[in-house]
What does this fold into?
Amino acid sequence: MDDDAGIRDVVRVFLGSLGYRVEVAENGESAIEIYREAMQAGDPFSIVILDLSVTTGRGGIETLQEIKTLEPGVKAIITSGFTGDPIFSRFREHGFVAALPKPFHIRDLNEIIQSILSSRSSA
It folds into this structure.
């Protein structure tokens, strides 16, 4: 989830090219609906990537809280250009498993995703 269309497009294209199934959302409401539909279809997402703050609608914190009501074990990565925000530095306290400052390289995002996925498979 990111309110910047350029970021959504780049992440969608690059993660898709790496073989990931990718859905993008502009705001929290859309992200929650996409997540809910995937769960109802029996094909939930392994990881969600949420921007800390968006211009309209729910930001990353509120969105993750709602998604956790649907799936308490969801793995979430928070992204933000506002890395000085105390929420970003204490991301685990807010239910995120990783934090990625913007701007980021897609390889860094992929490394975080691979780390999360490998820790899930070894658990």
